[in-house]
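ugh ok fine here u go
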Amino acid sequence: MRHNKSLPERVVDLERLLGVARRLGATVDLDTMLAAIVDAATSLLDCERATVFLYDAAADELCSRIATGIADSPISVIRFPATRGIAGDVVKTGATVNLLDAYADPRFNPDFDRASGFRTRSMLAVRLAEHDDTPVGVLQLLNKRCGAFDGRDEEIAGFLGSQAGVAIQRQRLLDHVAEKRRIERDLSIARSIQQGLLPREEPQVPGFDIAGWSGPADETGGDFFDFLPLSAGRFALAIADATGHGIGPALVSVEVTHGPGGGGVST
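structure:
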C-alpha cells in the first residue's frame, strides 16, 4: 500500500521538478534534457522504467528516443506504428492513460515484453505536444513499485511531459534553422556560380549601345547570356534557358558550358 509523502518530501519533489525546468534553459541538447526528465520521472513516481517516444508524423510511427532498462535488452530501439499499443492511443487521442494491469487492457501491445523478457504491470502514459497541441511523442512510465499510479502521479507526469514537449519542439526549431542556413549557404554558392556565367563587360560595337541583364525568378537559376566575338568585328549573342529554378539548373549550366566536353561559352 502506498503511503502519502510528508511535506518535506513534497518540497524535495517540487525542487526536483523546478530543477528539470531550469535545465531546459541551460542546455540545448535534446537527449540530455530528455534523460533528465526520464530520470526525474522514475525517481519521483517511484517506477521501474520510463520511456520517451517521439512521434514521426510522416511515417505515423513512434520510436523510443530515451528509454531506461533496455541497455541489456535484445531490443535497443523500440519502433512501432502509432496505430498500435497504449502509446499509440495516447498520441492519437491526447488522453492520459493510467492502468493498474496493462495486460487487462485490449490496447496493450505485449510484443516488447515477449522480446525482452520484461513484464509490464502498471502503466502511466501522457502525450507530449507542442504549444499548439501538435503531438510530438509520449512519456510512458511502467510498474509503480508501491501500489498504483494516482492522481498526483498524473500531475507530475503531465508537468514532465510538458517540459519534454517544449524540449522536442525547441530541438525541431533549431534543426529547422540549421537546415535553413545550410540551404542559404548552398544558394549563395549557386548564385555565385550563376553570376559567374554572365559576361563581365559588354562589347563595344560602333553605332550600337549594348547592355545585358539577367535576374533569376528564384534565389538563383541556370539561365544566362553571353556575347561571342566573331570575325571582322562582329558579335553573336548567346542566350541559354535552363529548365527549372534553383541550384540544379545552375549546376547544369556550368556543366554544359565549362564541364567535360563543354565549349566554354563565357568570354
